[in-house]
Structure formats: C-alpha cells, structure tokens
Specification:
The chain has helices at 2-15, 34-42, 52-70, 76-83, 133-145, 180-196, and strands spanning 22-29, 94-98, 106-111, 120-127, 149-157, 164-165, 168-169, 201-205, 216-223. The protein is an alpha/beta fold. It has 2 domains: 1-109, 2-Layer Sandwich (60s Ribosomal Protein L30, Chain: A), CATH 3.30.1330; 118-238, 60s Ribosomal Protein L30, Chain: A (2-Layer Sandwich), CATH 3.30.1330. The strands form 3 sheets. The protein has a 4-stranded mixed β-sheet with strand order 4-9-5-8, covered by helices on one side. A 3-stranded mixed β-sheet has the order 2-1-3, covered by helices on one side. Residues 228-238 have low confidence and may be disordered.
C-alpha cells in the first residue's frame, strides 16, 4: 500500500498536475504463488494468505488503498483500518489487477493537463452494481455533450459479496466450475460492449476498494475533434 502511494504521488508530481486532475490509476500488482507460499512456510513465516486467489484480492486491496491515499481520498490510518477489514474505503479512480509474473507494482496514471497537446480526455465514475446501466450512460452522454468520441472504457467488476443483486440471489460465488471473477467480468463486459457499440473495453475482475462492494470504478477515455489552426494574420490567405 505504501509503495503504491509513494509511486503514484511521484508520478502525479512528474506530470505537473494536481490530484484532482487524475482520472484513472491502473496498477498491476504481484500475488503469492504456490511456490512462494511454500517457501515462506519453509522459512518459518506464515503468509498473509494460503490461497493464491485470496492473495490476489489482498494485493489488489492494498494497491487500491494506496491509490486512495495518494489521491487524497482518505488518510493512511483510515486505509490501514480498511485493509484490516475495519470500515469501507473505496476509490472511483483505482483499477488494480494481480499477476504471478510480477514481483513489484507496475503503475499507470492518467490525468488531464492544460499543458497536454493531444485531444484525449478522461471521465470517471462508479457502477453501483454489475447492471448499473445508468452510471455508464451518464458518462457516455457527457462525452456526447462535449462532442467527443469514446476511445476506451476501463471498468472493475466483482460478484456482489452479499450474494444478491438488487434483492435477487446470484450464484457467482457458489459456482464450483468457474470463479466468480470470470462471471463478473463477462457480465459487465457484455453490458459495456453493448452500450459502447463494440468490444473495445477492458474489464478487470476483483474490485476490492475500487468502487463500492458489488460495483466498481469505471473510466472513459474519449477524444475531442482536432482543432484546426487558423492562418496567421500576416499569412497570405491564397
């Protein structure tokens, strides 16, 4: 968590923007493999998780809370309490996924800046649950209002830990064949692709502290029309 906080803060400073200008932070973080778990236990240490999938969730949670602290969405003490399961803190600008190929965190910060010369812009929001069409259409409508064209949608998705969506039971958490993160990614990916009109979407499973439980953060990257430069006053119009 502290490593992510420090690195995000450094990147924001290097970009020359404020934390309010940041629209999206993507982190690819490590996890505990079976070999790492065995090695820790052989050395007399008990890992934070004995299951690789659980370690993925813990790594994502720490990374997301690190982002929240860096962006001023909560303080470190509150984030540490949330990491221990005491209180709920989330960031609507965080997207964290874990991979066995990493030993550290790879971090991308997307922000708007008046000093940027490209036509790309960013909007962020939050889906309350896996079928929250209203949250998505609100962002897409705002892009239309600004005269932009959607280039990419990034979203987090998870099976609602309560076991229900809008009062109706879901079975994603009890499927013995397919892990719940696969179900959630498929459901949200289909919804976003239908609204966007194509499949150029990125949906990451496991949304610990990345939007509210059962929902997830959502980010839209869009492009404004190119602004043509007008001839200078001293130029020959011919």
């Amino acid at each position: 968590m502290d490593a992510v906080t420090e690195t995000v803060a450094k990147l924001v400073a290097e970009l020359g923007v404020s934390t309010d200008d940041v629209g999206f932070v993507l982190v690819k973080c490590p996890l505990l493999t079976s070999d790492k778990i065995a090695a820790l236990r052989a050395s007399g240490e008990e890992p934070v998780a004995g299951d690789t999938y659980e370690s993925m969730g813990r790594s994502r949670a720490a990374s997301a809370l690190g982002i929240a602290v860096a962006l001023g969405e909560c303080d470190r003490a509150t984030a540490l309490a949330a990491l221990d399961g005491e209180g709920e803190v989330s960031s609507t600008r965080a997207s964290a996924s874990a991979g066995a190929e990493l030993e550290d965190c790879h971090i991308l910060v997307v922000a708007e800046s008046t000093g940027a010369a490209n036509p790309l812009r960013v909007l962020h929001g939050e889906m309350a649950d896996a079928i929250d069409i209203a949250a998505v259409t609100a962002l897409l409508d705002e892009v239309d209002r600004r005269g932009g064209r959607v280039r990419q949608i990034f979203a987090k998705a998870e099976a609602d830990p309560s076991g229900s969506v809008r009062g109706l039971r879901h079975t994603m958490l009890t499927d013995s064949d397919v892990h719940s993160t696969r179900h959630a990614r498929a459901a949200v990916g289909g919804l976003l692709a239908a609204l966007k009109g194509d499949t150029a979407v990125y949906v990451s499973g496991g949304a610990e502290h990345q939007g509210r439980p059962g929902g997830g953060s959502i980010t839209v990257i869009y492009e404004l029309p190119a602004i043509r430069e007008l001839p200078g006053r001293n130029e020959d119009p011919a």
